[in-house]
Amino acid sequence: MPVRSAIQYVLDNRKQFGRVTILYGTRSPAERLFHDETGAWSKAEGVTYMETVDRGDPEWKGSVGVITTLLPKVKLKAVDTVAIMCGPPIMYKFVLIELYNMGRQREQVYMSLERHMKCGVGKCGHCQINGVYVCQKGPVFRYSDLVPVREAFR
Is 80 exposed, middle or buried (0-12, 13-18, 19+ CB in 10 A)? Predict the structure, then answer.
């Protein structure tokens, strides 16, 4: 979970941040990571934690559905609200639509692009997306900077 360090930072520095909402989705309950940490996140003061899986199993008692099914439950009021996300490119497409419908601007959305990186310095080209080297410029990007790089979402 690439945004785990950002979540840890925010929780370690709670006085610097307002309300925090963490939405966590996986394909199945077996793919969930960091059980101890996510349990602590759900109990942290000033934090709303929601989790869903695409497909439950007989033991799963939580929400079932893709991550966008959780977004209508989030109330975004502050103009300085920022969304940080990671996941497969197809997920970004639908989450971005929902965030836009919720009033988020492109500058308020950050995403982690996961690409196969080999050299890490921009020589091999494995992580290149339309001339942008994820290993050099990322992997975290502001959505407004990625709008012209449409391949990032495929």
Answer: exposed
What pTM value is reported for the model?
A: 0.87
**Residue 122: φ, ψ to 5°:** 85, 10
Assigned CATH topology for domain 4-153: Rossmann fold (3.40.50)
Closest alpha carbon to 85 in 94, 77, 76: 94
Taking Cα atoms as reference points, which of 121, 119, 100, 118 lies closest to residue 109?
100
* Spans of all domains in the chain: 4-153
Instruction: Quote the tokens at residue 2.
Output: 């690439």
For 69-122, what is each residue's pLDDT tens digit? 999 999 877 677 899 999 888 899 899 999 998 888 899 999 998 777 788 888
